[in-house]
Amino acid sequence: MEYTLITGATGYLGKAFACECLKRKQNLYLTGRSEDSLTLLREELLSLYPARDIQIFPCDLSDEKSRAALYSDAENYKFSRLINVAGADIQKAFYLYDEQKLTFQIRANFEGAVSMCNFCLKHRAEALRIINISSICGEYAMPYFAIYSATKGALTNFSLALAREWRGKGVFVTAILPGAIHTRPDVEEYIKTQGIWGRIAAKTPEYVAMKSLNASDKGIRKKVIGAANKLVYYGSALVPGAIKTALISKKWSSTQKDAF
Ligand SMILES: NC(=O)c1ccc[n+]([C@@H]2O[C@H](COP(=O)([O-])OP(=O)(O)OC[C@H]3O[C@@H](n4cnc5c(N)ncnc54)[C@H](OP(=O)(O)O)[C@@H]3O)[C@@H](O)[C@H]2O)c1
């Protein structure tokens, strides 16, 4: 049997991916940090899709020992899909970080995702499709969101490089660049502050999951989700970098987020 491995399955977007993959008749190997949340999620998903096999294993992706435990549990499975959803969107001025927060966010957003890619490549089914959930934020230097935007940018570039390394060899890599997604209450509050733009640009987790899987199936390497976000993405390419950074700095200096 082949499996789809989903990180961050206990989050809003991860769960939407799990449901969409089950609709597409895939068996799942789900991970998140909390064993209790994973167990509840598994029960809920199995009640909806009893014919599928769903495995769970708790893992802190920012900890290499925890990752090693997952790799040991999963070593006899074959993976036809990996969806790296887990991420931490801590948002604050860089000097407010302590060492622990800094390493946590960098490892969860980049090191963990890259390590999962390496594992799944070594335990792949005949073909492997990788989806890395990056962000449109990764396209910009973002003051007050510097670690998030830098790690998401790194994940996008890594995905594009990996896609090329495996071109024509049965491995397809897609970087997904969503804008805001209707998820946690603090994210919903942020979307509300964006007024009409927030209402137009923000997408549901179900929409993002469906579009991402479609893009992956078509072999698309980089996909911006939503027409409004595409407009920003292509339109902002015409604006000089220093101006973009100054505008972002003004807009983001008043927001702080730390749900982790
Ligand atoms: N929401 C948005 O507006 C938005 C926009 C663009 C991109 N994204 C990206 O989409 C992804 C999912 O976001 P979401 O809104 O669904 O967030 P969420 O509901 O907060 O879920 C985050 C998920 O990541 C997991 N996670 C965090 N740190 C981890 C770690 N060290 N080890 C293992 N798992 C860890 C969490 O697991 P626990 O259950 O253990 O906490 C949770 O399952 C993230 O990569 C985010 O950057 C989100």
Task: Write up this protein.
The protein starts with a strand and ends in an 8-residue tail after the last helix. The model has no long low-confidence stretch (mean pLDDT 96). It has 260 residues and is of the alpha/beta class. It has a single domain (2-252), classed as NAD(P)-binding Rossmann-like Domain (Rossmann fold). Helix 1 (12-23) packs across helix 8, helix 4 (99-122) packs parallel to helix 5 and helix 6 (185-193) packs across helix 7. It contains ten helices and seven strands. The chain has a seven-stranded parallel sheet, with helices on both faces. Residues 8, 10-14, 32-34, 37, 59-62, 85-89, 108, 133, 135, 178, 180-181, 183-184, 187 line the site of NADP nicotinamide-adenine-dinucleotide phosphate. NADP nicotinamide-adenine-dinucleotide phosphate is lined by residues 8, 10-14, 32-34, 37, 59-62, 85-89, 108, 133, 135, 178, 180-181, 183-184, 187.
Q: How many E strands?
A: 7
CATH structural architecture: 3-Layer(aba) Sandwich
Quaternary state of the chains: single chain
Poorly predicted ranges = none
| Biggest sheet details | 7 strands, parallel
* Classification by helices and strands: alpha/beta
Instruction: Please identify the top-level CATH class.
Output: Alpha Beta
Using the CA coordinates, give the radius of gyration: 18 Å
- Write out the distinct hetero groups bound to the structure: NADP nicotinamide-adenine-dinucleotide phosphate
Number of helices: 10
Q: Provide mean pLDDT, rounded.
A: 96
Quickly describe the structure.
By secondary structure, the protein is an alpha/beta fold.
